[in-house]
Amino acid sequence: MVIDSLSPFIPRTPPAEGLNPPIAMPDEQTPLLDTAKVVEGEMPTPPPSIPAPGPRSQDAVTVTSGSKPRHLPQAIAHRGYKAAAPENTMLAFRAAVEVGAHAVETDLHLSKDGVVVLSHDATLKRCFGFDAKVRDCDWSYLSTLRTLQEPAESLPRLKDLLEYLNEGALEHVWIMLDIKTDDDAAELMRKTAETIASVPGIRPWSERILPCCWTAEYVKLTQTLLPGFPIAHVGVNTAYARALADHVPELGLSILAHALATPVLGPRFLRDMRRAGHRVYSWTVNDEDWMRWAVRERLAGVITDDPKLFLDVCRRVCEEEDGTKEGGGVLALVRRRSSTVRARVAAAPGRLFFWIRYFVFQLILTVIYLVRWGLPSTQVPKVLGS
Questions:
Q1: Pseudo-torsion of CA 375, 378, 379, 382, nearest 10°?
Q2: Which domain of life is it from (predicted)?
Protein backbone atom coordinates (compact mmCIF):
# COMPACT_ATOMS: atom_id res chain seq x y z
CA MET A 1 0.00 0.00 0.00
CA VAL A 2 1.58 3.30 -1.08
CA ILE A 3 0.75 6.49 0.78
CA ASP A 4 -0.20 9.63 -1.10
CA SER A 5 0.73 13.04 0.22
CA LEU A 6 -2.17 14.48 2.20
CA SER A 7 -4.21 17.55 1.53
CA PRO A 8 -5.83 19.23 4.55
CA PHE A 9 -9.19 19.12 2.81
CA ILE A 10 -9.84 16.06 0.67
CA PRO A 11 -12.43 16.36 -2.12
CA ARG A 12 -15.64 14.69 -1.13
CA THR A 13 -17.56 12.27 -3.32
CA PRO A 14 -21.20 11.15 -3.08
CA PRO A 15 -21.74 8.09 -0.87
CA ALA A 16 -22.10 4.68 -2.43
CA GLU A 17 -25.64 3.67 -3.27
CA GLY A 18 -27.39 1.29 -0.91
CA LEU A 19 -26.76 0.43 2.72
CA ASN A 20 -26.60 -3.01 4.21
CA PRO A 21 -28.42 -3.09 7.55
CA PRO A 22 -25.95 -3.31 10.46
CA ILE A 23 -26.03 -5.75 13.32
CA ALA A 24 -25.88 -5.03 17.05
CA MET A 25 -22.50 -3.98 18.49
CA PRO A 26 -20.76 -5.49 21.51
CA ASP A 27 -19.87 -2.99 24.23
CA GLU A 28 -16.19 -3.86 24.31
CA GLN A 29 -13.48 -5.56 22.25
CA THR A 30 -10.79 -7.86 23.62
CA PRO A 31 -7.83 -5.75 24.82
CA LEU A 32 -4.97 -6.02 22.31
CA LEU A 33 -2.38 -3.83 23.99
CA ASP A 34 0.70 -4.61 26.03
CA THR A 35 0.02 -1.93 28.63
CA ALA A 36 3.44 -2.43 30.19
CA LYS A 37 5.01 -0.78 27.14
CA VAL A 38 2.77 2.26 27.62
CA VAL A 39 3.57 2.55 31.31
CA GLU A 40 7.28 2.46 30.47
CA GLY A 41 6.73 5.33 28.06
CA GLU A 42 7.54 3.64 24.73
CA MET A 43 5.99 5.69 21.96
CA PRO A 44 6.19 4.05 18.53
CA THR A 45 5.20 6.17 15.57
CA PRO A 46 1.83 5.49 13.86
CA PRO A 47 1.78 2.50 11.48
CA PRO A 48 3.17 3.63 8.10
CA SER A 49 0.35 2.05 6.10
CA ILE A 50 -2.23 4.47 7.52
CA PRO A 51 -0.95 8.06 7.26
CA ALA A 52 -1.17 10.70 9.96
CA PRO A 53 -3.36 13.73 9.18
CA GLY A 54 -1.86 16.94 7.85
CA PRO A 55 -2.28 20.37 9.48
CA ARG A 56 -5.90 21.36 10.14
CA SER A 57 -7.02 18.04 8.70
CA GLN A 58 -9.78 16.22 10.53
CA ASP A 59 -10.96 14.66 7.30
CA ALA A 60 -10.54 11.16 5.93
CA VAL A 61 -6.99 10.09 5.10
CA THR A 62 -6.10 9.15 1.54
CA VAL A 63 -4.12 6.04 0.65
CA THR A 64 -3.22 4.58 -2.71
CA SER A 65 -3.91 0.88 -2.58
CA GLY A 66 -3.57 -1.12 -5.76
CA SER A 67 -4.47 1.05 -8.72
CA LYS A 68 -6.78 3.61 -7.10
CA PRO A 69 -6.78 6.07 -4.20
CA ARG A 70 -9.08 5.36 -1.28
CA HIS A 71 -10.51 7.51 1.47
CA LEU A 72 -10.24 5.84 4.87
CA PRO A 73 -11.86 7.26 8.02
CA GLN A 74 -9.47 8.41 10.69
CA ALA A 75 -9.22 6.29 13.84
CA ILE A 76 -10.47 8.35 16.80
CA ALA A 77 -9.91 6.66 20.17
CA HIS A 78 -13.10 6.86 22.25
CA ARG A 79 -12.11 8.08 25.75
CA GLY A 80 -8.64 6.90 24.79
CA TYR A 81 -8.01 3.21 24.08
CA LYS A 82 -11.03 2.24 26.18
CA ALA A 83 -10.89 -1.44 25.22
CA ALA A 84 -7.44 -1.80 26.78
CA ALA A 85 -7.22 0.70 29.65
CA PRO A 86 -9.46 2.60 32.09
CA GLU A 87 -11.36 5.22 30.09
CA ASN A 88 -10.36 8.89 30.04
CA THR A 89 -7.03 8.26 31.78
CA MET A 90 -3.55 9.17 30.64
CA LEU A 91 -2.81 5.46 30.24
CA ALA A 92 -5.74 5.15 27.82
CA PHE A 93 -4.55 8.18 25.82
CA ARG A 94 -0.96 6.91 25.65
CA ALA A 95 -2.25 3.49 24.61
CA ALA A 96 -4.28 5.04 21.77
CA VAL A 97 -1.22 6.89 20.49
CA GLU A 98 0.88 3.73 20.70
CA VAL A 99 -1.43 1.76 18.41
CA GLY A 100 -1.58 4.58 15.85
CA ALA A 101 -4.86 6.42 16.50
CA HIS A 102 -5.08 9.67 14.56
CA ALA A 103 -7.00 11.39 17.36
CA VAL A 104 -8.26 10.89 20.89
CA GLU A 105 -11.79 11.69 22.01
CA THR A 106 -12.47 12.77 25.58
CA ASP A 107 -15.16 14.42 27.73
CA LEU A 108 -15.12 17.68 29.69
CA HIS A 109 -16.54 18.45 33.13
CA LEU A 110 -15.79 21.16 35.65
CA SER A 111 -14.68 20.67 39.26
CA LYS A 112 -16.05 22.81 42.10
CA ASP A 113 -13.00 25.07 41.97
CA GLY A 114 -13.09 25.51 38.19
CA VAL A 115 -10.64 22.86 36.92
CA VAL A 116 -11.53 21.24 33.59
CA VAL A 117 -11.31 17.46 34.10
CA LEU A 118 -11.70 14.54 31.72
CA SER A 119 -14.71 12.46 32.72
CA HIS A 120 -17.60 11.11 30.70
CA ASP A 121 -19.97 10.88 33.66
CA ALA A 122 -21.17 13.81 35.75
CA THR A 123 -20.75 11.54 38.81
CA LEU A 124 -17.80 9.54 40.15
CA LYS A 125 -19.75 6.36 40.92
CA ARG A 126 -19.17 4.20 37.83
CA CYS A 127 -15.46 4.82 37.29
CA PHE A 128 -14.20 5.63 40.80
CA GLY A 129 -16.77 4.11 43.18
CA PHE A 130 -17.73 7.32 44.99
CA ASP A 131 -21.32 8.58 45.02
CA ALA A 132 -20.59 12.25 44.36
CA LYS A 133 -20.81 14.68 41.45
CA VAL A 134 -17.67 15.95 39.80
CA ARG A 135 -18.85 19.56 40.11
CA ASP A 136 -19.26 19.18 43.91
CA CYS A 137 -15.61 18.21 44.45
CA ASP A 138 -12.45 20.30 44.45
CA TRP A 139 -9.51 19.26 42.29
CA SER A 140 -7.46 18.55 45.43
CA TYR A 141 -9.89 15.71 46.18
CA LEU A 142 -10.45 14.56 42.59
CA SER A 143 -6.70 14.21 42.07
CA THR A 144 -6.53 11.53 44.80
CA LEU A 145 -9.08 9.22 43.15
CA ARG A 146 -8.14 6.01 41.34
CA THR A 147 -10.22 4.03 38.86
CA LEU A 148 -12.01 0.85 39.87
CA GLN A 149 -10.78 -0.76 36.66
CA GLU A 150 -7.23 -2.07 36.80
CA PRO A 151 -4.62 -0.82 36.45
CA ALA A 152 -5.84 1.88 38.84
CA GLU A 153 -5.36 5.28 37.21
CA SER A 154 -5.99 8.85 38.31
CA LEU A 155 -8.49 11.33 36.90
CA PRO A 156 -6.63 13.70 34.52
CA ARG A 157 -7.20 17.35 33.74
CA LEU A 158 -7.53 18.77 30.24
CA LYS A 159 -4.22 20.49 30.95
CA ASP A 160 -2.53 17.11 31.51
CA LEU A 161 -3.69 15.82 28.12
CA LEU A 162 -2.59 19.00 26.34
CA GLU A 163 0.86 18.89 27.93
CA TYR A 164 1.27 15.23 26.93
CA LEU A 165 0.24 15.83 23.30
CA ASN A 166 2.47 18.90 23.20
CA GLU A 167 5.52 16.64 22.89
CA GLY A 168 7.19 17.05 19.51
CA ALA A 169 6.77 13.44 18.41
CA LEU A 170 2.99 13.66 18.95
CA GLU A 171 2.16 16.84 17.05
CA HIS A 172 0.24 14.82 14.44
CA VAL A 173 -2.35 13.64 17.02
CA TRP A 174 -5.45 15.81 17.40
CA ILE A 175 -8.17 15.94 20.05
CA MET A 176 -11.95 15.68 19.86
CA LEU A 177 -13.53 17.33 22.93
CA ASP A 178 -17.02 16.15 23.88
CA ILE A 179 -18.27 19.13 25.91
CA LYS A 180 -20.84 17.81 28.38
CA THR A 181 -23.92 19.82 29.33
CA ASP A 182 -24.05 19.11 33.10
CA ASP A 183 -22.13 22.25 34.11
CA ASP A 184 -22.82 25.95 33.64
CA ALA A 185 -22.24 26.38 29.91
CA ALA A 186 -20.54 29.77 29.98
CA GLU A 187 -18.23 28.86 32.88
CA LEU A 188 -17.21 25.52 31.36
CA MET A 189 -16.43 27.07 27.98
CA ARG A 190 -14.54 29.99 29.57
CA LYS A 191 -12.42 27.64 31.68
CA THR A 192 -11.80 25.40 28.67
CA ALA A 193 -10.56 28.36 26.63
CA GLU A 194 -8.35 29.49 29.52
CA THR A 195 -6.87 26.00 29.89
CA ILE A 196 -6.04 25.77 26.19
CA ALA A 197 -4.44 29.22 26.28
CA SER A 198 -2.34 28.22 29.31
CA VAL A 199 -0.49 25.53 27.32
CA PRO A 200 1.21 27.12 24.29
CA GLY A 201 1.08 24.52 21.52
CA ILE A 202 4.05 23.39 19.45
CA ARG A 203 1.46 23.57 16.69
CA PRO A 204 -1.51 25.91 17.05
CA TRP A 205 -4.23 24.19 19.07
CA SER A 206 -6.76 25.52 16.55
CA GLU A 207 -5.25 22.96 14.15
CA ARG A 208 -5.47 20.11 16.65
CA ILE A 209 -8.57 20.59 18.82
CA LEU A 210 -12.12 19.98 17.63
CA PRO A 211 -14.70 21.13 20.24
CA CYS A 212 -17.88 19.05 19.93
CA CYS A 213 -21.12 20.71 21.06
CA TRP A 214 -24.44 19.01 21.81
CA THR A 215 -26.55 22.16 21.47
CA ALA A 216 -26.68 25.48 19.62
CA GLU A 217 -25.93 27.30 22.90
CA TYR A 218 -22.53 25.61 23.16
CA VAL A 219 -21.83 26.22 19.47
CA LYS A 220 -22.39 29.94 20.00
CA LEU A 221 -20.18 30.00 23.12
CA THR A 222 -17.42 28.14 21.29
CA GLN A 223 -17.55 30.61 18.41
CA THR A 224 -17.14 33.45 20.91
CA LEU A 225 -14.55 31.99 23.31
CA LEU A 226 -12.51 29.87 20.88
CA PRO A 227 -12.44 31.99 17.70
CA GLY A 228 -10.62 30.35 14.82
CA PHE A 229 -11.23 26.82 16.11
CA PRO A 230 -13.17 24.32 13.99
CA ILE A 231 -16.43 23.23 15.63
CA ALA A 232 -18.45 20.03 15.48
CA HIS A 233 -21.91 19.04 16.65
CA VAL A 234 -22.21 15.76 18.53
CA GLY A 235 -25.67 14.22 18.67
CA VAL A 236 -28.13 11.45 17.93
CA ASN A 237 -30.63 13.25 15.69
CA THR A 238 -29.99 14.16 12.06
CA ALA A 239 -32.82 16.72 11.97
CA TYR A 240 -31.14 18.82 14.68
CA ALA A 241 -27.77 18.31 13.00
CA ARG A 242 -29.21 19.58 9.71
CA ALA A 243 -30.57 22.71 11.38
CA LEU A 244 -27.16 23.49 12.87
CA ALA A 245 -25.32 22.71 9.64
CA ASP A 246 -27.58 25.14 7.76
CA HIS A 247 -26.34 28.02 9.95
CA VAL A 248 -22.70 27.08 10.73
CA PRO A 249 -20.41 26.78 7.70
CA GLU A 250 -17.97 23.83 7.75
CA LEU A 251 -19.52 22.47 10.94
CA GLY A 252 -18.27 18.97 11.69
CA LEU A 253 -20.92 16.39 12.57
CA SER A 254 -20.27 13.59 15.06
CA ILE A 255 -23.42 11.47 14.85
CA LEU A 256 -24.56 8.20 16.44
CA ALA A 257 -23.75 5.44 13.94
CA HIS A 258 -27.30 4.06 14.03
CA ALA A 259 -28.68 7.44 12.93
CA LEU A 260 -26.30 7.54 9.96
CA ALA A 261 -27.23 3.97 9.03
CA THR A 262 -31.00 4.48 9.27
CA PRO A 263 -32.52 3.31 5.96
CA VAL A 264 -33.27 6.17 3.53
CA LEU A 265 -32.73 9.00 6.05
CA GLY A 266 -29.11 8.13 6.89
CA PRO A 267 -27.73 7.91 3.32
CA ARG A 268 -29.64 11.07 2.36
CA PHE A 269 -28.16 12.94 5.33
CA LEU A 270 -24.63 11.80 4.45
CA ARG A 271 -25.06 12.84 0.82
CA ASP A 272 -26.41 16.28 1.68
CA MET A 273 -23.77 17.00 4.32
CA ARG A 274 -20.91 16.01 2.03
CA ARG A 275 -22.24 18.21 -0.74
CA ALA A 276 -22.44 21.12 1.71
CA GLY A 277 -18.83 20.60 2.85
CA HIS A 278 -19.39 19.15 6.33
CA ARG A 279 -17.16 16.41 7.72
CA VAL A 280 -19.15 13.50 9.20
CA TYR A 281 -17.92 11.23 12.01
CA SER A 282 -19.73 8.33 13.68
CA TRP A 283 -19.78 6.97 17.24
CA THR A 284 -19.31 4.50 18.87
CA VAL A 285 -18.18 1.88 16.34
CA ASN A 286 -16.75 -1.32 17.88
CA ASP A 287 -18.01 -4.18 15.75
CA GLU A 288 -16.12 -5.17 12.58
CA ASP A 289 -19.25 -5.07 10.41
CA TRP A 290 -19.92 -1.51 11.54
CA MET A 291 -16.29 -0.61 10.87
CA ARG A 292 -16.55 -1.94 7.32
CA TRP A 293 -19.75 0.06 6.88
CA ALA A 294 -17.90 3.22 7.96
CA VAL A 295 -15.14 2.54 5.42
CA ARG A 296 -17.69 1.97 2.64
CA GLU A 297 -19.47 5.21 3.52
CA ARG A 298 -16.16 7.13 3.43
CA LEU A 299 -16.76 8.89 6.74
CA ALA A 300 -14.21 11.45 7.92
CA GLY A 301 -13.54 9.52 11.10
CA VAL A 302 -14.72 6.70 13.35
CA ILE A 303 -14.89 7.04 17.13
CA THR A 304 -14.12 3.61 18.53
CA ASP A 305 -13.13 1.92 21.78
CA ASP A 306 -10.59 -0.14 19.80
CA PRO A 307 -8.57 2.00 17.37
CA LYS A 308 -6.12 -0.84 16.72
CA LEU A 309 -8.91 -3.11 15.50
CA PHE A 310 -10.31 -0.34 13.31
CA LEU A 311 -6.92 0.30 11.66
CA ASP A 312 -6.58 -3.45 11.09
CA VAL A 313 -10.03 -3.54 9.46
CA CYS A 314 -9.05 -0.63 7.16
CA ARG A 315 -5.98 -2.54 6.02
CA ARG A 316 -7.91 -5.75 5.48
CA VAL A 317 -10.57 -3.95 3.44
CA CYS A 318 -7.87 -2.55 1.14
CA GLU A 319 -6.18 -5.93 0.85
CA GLU A 320 -9.45 -7.72 0.07
CA GLU A 321 -10.50 -5.20 -2.55
CA ASP A 322 -7.09 -5.37 -4.23
CA GLY A 323 -6.94 -9.15 -4.09
CA THR A 324 -3.47 -8.90 -2.53
CA LYS A 325 -4.21 -11.04 0.49
CA GLU A 326 -2.57 -14.47 0.50
CA GLY A 327 -4.86 -16.87 -1.29
CA GLY A 328 -6.81 -13.85 -2.50
CA GLY A 329 -7.93 -12.88 -5.95
CA VAL A 330 -11.37 -12.24 -7.36
CA LEU A 331 -12.71 -15.69 -6.53
CA ALA A 332 -11.68 -15.41 -2.87
CA LEU A 333 -13.22 -11.94 -2.67
CA VAL A 334 -16.52 -13.26 -4.08
CA ARG A 335 -16.50 -16.10 -1.55
CA ARG A 336 -15.90 -13.72 1.35
CA ARG A 337 -18.71 -11.44 0.23
CA SER A 338 -21.06 -14.41 -0.27
CA SER A 339 -20.30 -15.55 3.27
CA THR A 340 -21.05 -12.05 4.54
CA VAL A 341 -24.38 -11.97 2.72
CA ARG A 342 -25.39 -15.35 4.20
CA ALA A 343 -24.48 -14.12 7.69
CA ARG A 344 -26.60 -11.00 7.21
CA VAL A 345 -29.58 -13.00 6.01
CA ALA A 346 -29.30 -15.27 9.06
CA ALA A 347 -29.17 -12.22 11.33
CA ALA A 348 -32.11 -10.44 9.65
CA PRO A 349 -34.73 -11.14 12.39
CA GLY A 350 -32.42 -9.72 15.08
CA ARG A 351 -31.67 -6.65 12.96
CA LEU A 352 -35.37 -6.05 12.38
CA PHE A 353 -36.05 -6.14 16.14
CA PHE A 354 -33.11 -3.78 16.71
CA TRP A 355 -34.39 -1.22 14.19
CA ILE A 356 -37.90 -1.32 15.66
CA ARG A 357 -36.47 -0.48 19.09
CA TYR A 358 -34.28 2.23 17.63
CA PHE A 359 -37.15 3.91 15.77
CA VAL A 360 -39.28 3.87 18.94
CA PHE A 361 -36.39 5.49 20.84
CA GLN A 362 -35.98 8.19 18.19
CA LEU A 363 -39.73 8.85 18.10
CA ILE A 364 -39.87 9.39 21.87
CA LEU A 365 -36.81 11.64 21.73
CA THR A 366 -38.29 13.70 18.88
CA VAL A 367 -41.63 14.18 20.61
CA ILE A 368 -39.92 15.34 23.83
CA TYR A 369 -37.79 17.82 21.89
CA LEU A 370 -40.72 19.22 19.89
CA VAL A 371 -42.81 19.69 23.03
CA ARG A 372 -40.03 21.49 24.90
CA TRP A 373 -38.36 23.55 22.19
CA GLY A 374 -40.31 23.30 18.94
CA LEU A 375 -38.89 22.61 15.48
CA PRO A 376 -35.07 22.57 15.26
CA SER A 377 -35.25 24.73 12.13
CA THR A 378 -36.93 27.44 14.24
CA GLN A 379 -35.15 26.99 17.58
CA VAL A 380 -31.55 26.73 16.33
CA PRO A 381 -31.34 30.06 14.44
CA LYS A 382 -33.03 31.78 17.39
CA VAL A 383 -30.27 30.58 19.75
CA LEU A 384 -27.49 31.36 17.29
CA GLY A 385 -28.92 34.79 16.59
CA SER A 386 -28.97 34.18 12.85
A1: 180
A2: Eukaryota
C-alpha–C-alpha distance, residues 282 and 279, integer Å: 10
Q: For residue 49, count other CB atoms closer than 10 A to its CB.
A: 16
Determine contact, residues 277/250, Cβ cutoff 8 Å: yes
Counts of helices then strands in the chain (DSSP H, E): 15, 12
Determine the Cα–Cα distance for residues 233 and 254; give it in Å rounded to an integer. 6
Helix (H, G, I), strand (E, B) or coil at 71: strand
Judge whether 76 and 302 are in contact, CB under 8 Å.
yes
Question: What are the residue boundaries of the structural domains of the chain, listed by start?
Answer: 2-6+32-330
What are the DSSP calls for 150-208, one per residue? SSP-PPPBHHHHHHHHTSGGGTT-EEEEEE-SSS-HHHHHHHHHHHHHHS--SS-GGGT
The secondary structure of 260-329 as a DSSP string is HHSTTHHHHHHHHHHHTT--EEEE---SHHHHHHHHHTT-SEEEES-HHHHHHHHHHHHHHHHT-STT-S
Element spanning 100, H or E: none
Which among 229, 196, 197 has a CA at the least distance from the CA of 211?
A: 229
The answer to whether 161 and 96 are in contact (CB under 8 A) is: no
**Euclidean distance between the first and the last CA atom of the chain, given in angstroms as a whole number:** 47
Assigned architecture for domain 2-6+32-330: Alpha-Beta Barrel (3.20)
d(CA 109, CA 179) in angstroms, rounded, equals: 7
pLDDT for res 336: 55
Q: How many CB atoms lie within 10 A of CB 309?
A: 21
Q: Distance from CA of residue 194 to its chain's centroid?
A: 24
pTM for the structure as a whole: 0.82
C-alpha 240/C-alpha 12 separation (Å) is 23
Q: Is 3 helix (H, G, I), strand (E, B) or coil?
A: strand
Burial class of 227 by CB neighbour count within 10 A (0 to 12, 13 to 18, 19+): exposed
